[in-house]
Amino acid sequence: MFTGIVEELGEVTAVENLGDSSRFRLRGPLVTEDAKHGDSIAVNGVCLTVVETAGGEFTADVMAETLNRSSLGALTTGSRVNLERPMAVGDRLGGHIVQGHVDGTGTILARTPSENWEIVKISLPAALRRYVVEKGSITVDGVSLTVVDAAADFFTISLIPTTLALTTLGIKEPGDPVNLEVDVIAKYVERLVGDKAEGAAK
């Protein structure tokens, strides 16, 4: 479990294409300081398993399912990435409950700078529309954010200087893909209510 509070802006140092999967090597001295084989690290909001660590870097295998459902397949050597270790029991929940299980991808449509923040407009897949509400939580490339506006096919977020400086959202441009994870609580509620309604109809 993660919180969507990015700990470190890392970098892809190597990508090995293995046919139906890829092996990534990523630099992240902070997130690897206590990491070991089998641990989880979120990369742009995708929960990956550490294969090995050395010299402030770690490797992770990314299967076809993850490559197909996220934007990780677009990463190349030199790409910057958001990194976060799992939440420890007893830690403060600074963002919201994030699983690192990407629900879909969106595309940055526009960026509108203001004096002290920036509004970013992102496309919203139809399948995720019902989970995105004004003032609700959403994870974009692993960053826990509050939705400003929620439309039928897009939503907007407001980024403060800290987020712009310390995450990849400060360097993403219109046309770039981003990973989206909606609020898991909303999905559970939908399933429970649906099952209850289905049972009552029988």
Polypeptide structure, described:
The chain is mainly beta. It is 15% helix and 41% strand. The protein is built from 3 helices and 12 strands; from the N terminus they run βββββαββββββαβα. The protein has helices at 64-69, 161-166, 184-201; strands spanning 8-17, 21-27, 40-43, 46-54, 57-63, 80-84, 104-113, 118-123, 137-140, 143-150, 154-159, 177-182. A 6-stranded antiparallel β-barrel has the order 1-2-5-4-3-6. Strand 10 (143-150) and strand 11 (154-159) form a beta hairpin. The radius of gyration is 17 Å and the shape is globular. The termini are far apart. The model has no long low-confidence stretch (mean pLDDT 92).
What distinguishing features does this structure have?
202 residues; mainly beta; six-stranded antiparallel barrel; globular
**What is the count of DSSP helices, taking H or I runs of 4+ residues?**
3
* Broad shape: globular
Helix content: 10-25%
Structural class: mainly beta
Q: On the 0-100 scale, what is the average pLDDT?
A: 92
What characterizes the major β-sheet? 6 strands, antiparallel, barrel
Give the SSE order as H and E letters. Answer: EEEEEHEEEEEEHEH
Tell me the Rg in angstroms: 17 Å
* Poorly predicted spans: none
How far is the first residue's CA from the last residue's CA? 37 Å
- The tally of strands reads 12
Strand content: 35-45%
